Amino acid sequence: MTTFLDFTHVWEPRDSPRTLLMLHGTGGDEHDLVPLAALLDPNANILSPRGQVLENGAPRFFRRLAEGIFDEADLRLRTASLANFVTAAAAEYGFDPLQVTAAGFSNGANIAAALLLLNPGALSRAVLFRAMVPLIPEAPPALAGTKVFLSAGRTDPLIKPENSERLATMLTHYGADVELHWSPLGHTLGKQDVAAAQAWLG
Fold it and tell me: What residues are annotated to the active site?
């Protein structure tokens, strides 16, 4: 476990050009999704930061005003910080910044979606488990060549199906190659989600 640019994080190098950026949900930490990374791509490097914001003691990647209502100014600031962290980590650890796949759950998936919208090119691929539309970008991002896997829950009490569909449509409109997968679960990550993401990643 290491800290720089104010991000406490886990770095596990592999003999691979690919790096998985693992982004935990509310209340998680830098260790939470490391086992998931090994399932998604066992040969990829793992970069797993801890969110810099605390909500009642629970780490998050950005602030929210209420459930499902984000502090957009803070989201933009934290997204820029995360993008800078990935760039700095690539220089520090020697991985290819053009071969970074983000895999996030809930709050982590939302900041990964914000990275796509605000910092196109920061990610080559993204696996978004239970993401929602994080914000509307001021300028349309160029996402041609970016691949996105979006796994939504049919019975998710926090994210309505139309919000998941709206995110998929938005990313597609900006040029991303998007696959929307529907899980029978709610706001939890299950074996179906992982298996579908594994197949998508190839």
Answer: 106, 156, 187
Q: How would you classify residue 39: left for phi > 0, otherwise alpha for psi between -120 and 50, otherwise beta?
A: alpha
CA–CA separation, 117 and 65 (whole Å) = 21
Give which of 7, 8, 9, 13 is closest to 96, Cα–Cα.
Answer: 13
Task: Inform me whether the pLDDT recorded for 134 exceeds 90.
Answer: yes
Show the domains of the chain with their CATH numbers: 2-201 (3.40.50.1820)
Q: Specify the 3-state DSSP secondary structure of 166.
A: helix
Distance CA 185, CA 83 (A): 31
**Strand pairing category for 64-66 and 58-60:** unpaired
pTM of the model: 0.96
Per-residue confidence (pLDDT) for residue 71, from 0 to 100: 95
